[in-house]
Write a structure and sequence with these properties.
This protein is mainly alpha-helical. It is built from ten helices and no strands. The longest helix is centred in the C-terminal third of the chain and has 24 residues.
């Protein structure tokens, strides 16, 4: 039997009722976890996001009396926290792993492996230095695998705006890689690797 969410919220807000809070947590956690997973793509990340959501709910529990729809409130917070998680964390290792897999056939000796790692670091720095909205869009599309339409709906922007952000990010990455290549021997491996990485990112 589903709990009376309104009564739980009142008990939490007015009485600091930890038992009621646990009931609220247990009732909504599975759905919020699945919802967060849609954004952050790993179980561990989703769990971290939802845990942070409930920490904030408890810290701001007095506000629950003014919340008309607690379910909508929790899902809204979860979406915001998931996007913040993507925005604030370093480059997702998933993208690096995918690129690294593509590069393994080139990195056949320590020098090549070192140069490839250098290029990956350049990409990471380029992405981290993008304007905030551009960085978030890039991560949602390229790291989380979301479609332009999904990202547009999620961020309340047009698909054209998503396309422009991705184009801007890729141009920034390409400029960083070009600068790096100019410092190296033009026939050295970095130029080959850089081109392959850019081809991978364009997919």
């Amino acid at each position: 039997m589903a709990p009376n969410i309104r009564k739980l919220a009142e008990r939490i807000a007015r009485q600091d009722d930890e038992k009621a809070f646990r009931q609220l947590f247990e009732h909504f956690y599975p759905g919020l976890n699945d919802f967060a997973f849609y954004f952050v793509k790993t179980k561990a990340n989703a769990e971290e996001v939802v845990t942070d959501v409930f920490v904030k709910v408890w810290q701001n529990r007095k506000k629950l009396t003014s919340i008309v729809n607690v379910k909508a409130y929790l899902f809204t917070i979860t979406k915001r926290e998931a996007l913040n998680y993507i925005r604030n964390n370093k480059l997702n290792e998933r993208l690096f792993i995918q690129i690294d897999d593509q590069m393994k056939f080139i990195s056949k000796n320590p020098e090549h492996e070192y140069l490839t790692n250098e290029l990956l670091l350049i990409i990471s720095n380029s992405i981290n230095n993008l304007p905030e909205k551009c960085r978030l869009v890039f991560r949602l599309v390229k790291e989380n695998g979301l479609k332009y339409k999904e990202v547009a709906s999620m961020l309340d922007i047009t698909e054209k705006a998503v396309e422009m952000h991705i184009s801007k990010a890729l141009k920034r990455i390409k400029r960083s890689l070009d600068t790096y290549q100019d410092k190296k021997d033009p026939v050295n491996i970095p130029k080959i690797v850089a081109r392959l990485i850019l081809l991978f990112l364009l997919v």
